[in-house]
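Hi R.,

Here are the chain sequences for the assembly we discussed:
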Amino acid sequence: MALDVSTPPRRRGHDPESVLSVAVGVFNERGYDGTSMEDLARALGVTKSAIYHHVPGKEQLLARALDRALDGLSELAADARAARGPAIDRLERVVRQSVRVLTERLPYVTLLLRVRGNSATERAALARRAEFGALVGRLVDEAAEEGALRPGLDPALVTRLLFGAVGSIAEWHRPEHGAPATEVADALVGMVFDGLKRG
Amino acid sequence: MALDVSTPPRRRGHDPESVLSVAVGVFNERGYDGTSMEDLARALGVTKSAIYHHVPGKEQLLARALDRALDGLSELAADARAARGPAIDRLERVVRQSVRVLTERLPYVTLLLRVRGNSATERAALARRAEFGALVGRLVDEAAEEGALRPGLDPALVTRLLFGAVGSIAEWHRPEHGAPATEVADALVGMVFDGLKRG
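And here is the predicted structure of the full complex:
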């Protein structure tokens, strides 16, 4: 059929995966609330009128992007729940795996860390993120109960500061330059578990 | 003169200090780029046409708000440059004072931590923030040279992770609830300098 021949070849890079990848980049650059469908159309190289062929809607893209980060955390949470051994070792493993998920899924985790709860989608993501935080909090508590933490440390503050340090990696880590994720994880674990000071 | 009598009393809370305080709240809530002069007028309770009596301009407010955070860091940097003694102790002092500045000037530091360099004002603020980061980096290097750090720690990564942990406090610290700033600083210093693990 002539129609088939005259139809331009499908543009490369507009499968759902690459749409998501472009969208998360625009959300991180302009802020989700500051991103219009027109901005997404421009970034994808399609016209404003064609954008809905490629993008189901801004909020669905946000939900998918946040799930990409949260699914990584859920996998490592399941791994942590299945693990045995001293809580301090399981905590160290969770910290290392969190750094890995953060660096492997950097733009998605960056987006997750900026969510403020402005919509049902954002609030659902914050609830899933809080479940992960609670798991880490339980590991810190268990480590304290097992006598593995230095006395005088407040487990709730330790949990917040530890995950603050992990999350802050998203602000400066660039996979193409600088230290690989395993070195970043080693530095963090070394600093936080054994301390900066020479014993 | 009749005119004086009929002029309504000046509204309370519209001195430059309270304008800045309201503006930084709106910037943090909506994002600077997402804040319009109309949003600021609404938050100040003035009409859209009256806003320029109260607000010099959005970018000047941003510059003043960022200076409020940066001046706090400059003061503690001057203090650190004047201090003597082992670098590890001077570093600990800088960390404690950074937590104090962050908690005392929380909305201003929160705004500073979200700056991405989208304007000349933002780039100038990032340059001042980088000066402070460089000072901390020098202290970590000195502490390493003095043999006070555990061997094997990368000073550049330590600097980033340490200040990531400090900055993350802005995400959850609420002065009216929870741990006071000195306890947060104690927990951070305890965790990072001596380590989580019981020796």
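Chain B has two domains: 11-54, 62-194. Chain B has a mean pLDDT of 91.

Let me know if anything looks off.

Best,
T.
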